[in-house]
């Protein structure tokens, strides 16, 4: 019996389909459609540099993604999208129209033979008060209403401005603090394990690839942060098959 495979990507930060990683994502989706059995595909947040609600401006910008995604769905693949801080209030389009299951918060699933905690990872750095306030602001019911009600062109313009600032800030923070970021990811994994044990935690957001085991009170678990596609020669793609957890290279996957 062929094991069903699950694939995970995060923090691609697409600005257009024409850019290198837009084409990489298209090739990856086409690769998934060549598999002999349906797959599980997890978008772990910040797939786009900015996407809000179901506005036509975003739908048109990334319309080339739809044929391979719809093909995957029609073949019985399961599609999951965790909202990031760059793809916000996306249920009207990605869940209701495209059939993804959309999550805003941490979620637990049995994937293969493993109990897995899944989340975007934007609550890893609890010291970033500016971001935590911004997240609370964007999730306010009034802001959610405005996200759907105001014109998409306005949000596209504003999103581009905000993303430029966010990219510059996160790049410099990553370069200057990579080891402390890894410590934050590890501490978050240990803290999460104490809330509810798991075999594996998968996060994104921090733009630093991590794959390590850790021990909490004699119990061993695995901690993975998916890193980012931005600036990487080989886009990081994680695969779970049964009990096997592996990384795919650009050559093998796309």
Structure description:
By secondary structure, the protein is of the alpha/beta class. It has one domain. The chain is 39% helix and 24% strand. The chain has 9 helices and 13 strands. It has helices at residues 20-32, 56-61, 66-74, 91-95, 129-138, 141-149, 152-176, 178-195, 250-253; strands at 5-9, 40-43, 51-52, 78-82, 87-88, 101-103, 107-111, 114-118, 200-203, 209-216, 219-226, 237-241, 244-248. Strand 1, helix 1 and strand 2 form a beta-alpha-beta unit. The mean pLDDT is 91.
Give me some keywords for this one:
single chain, 254 residues, alpha/beta, 5-stranded mixed sheet, 9 helices, 39% helix
Give the SSE layout.
Layout: E1 5-9, H1 20-32, E2 40-43, E3 51-52, H2 56-61, H3 66-74, E4 78-82, E5 87-88, H4 91-95, E6 101-103, E7 107-111, E8 114-118, H5 129-138, H6 141-149, H7 152-176, H8 178-195, E9 200-203, E10 209-216, E11 219-226, E12 237-241, E13 244-248, H9 250-253
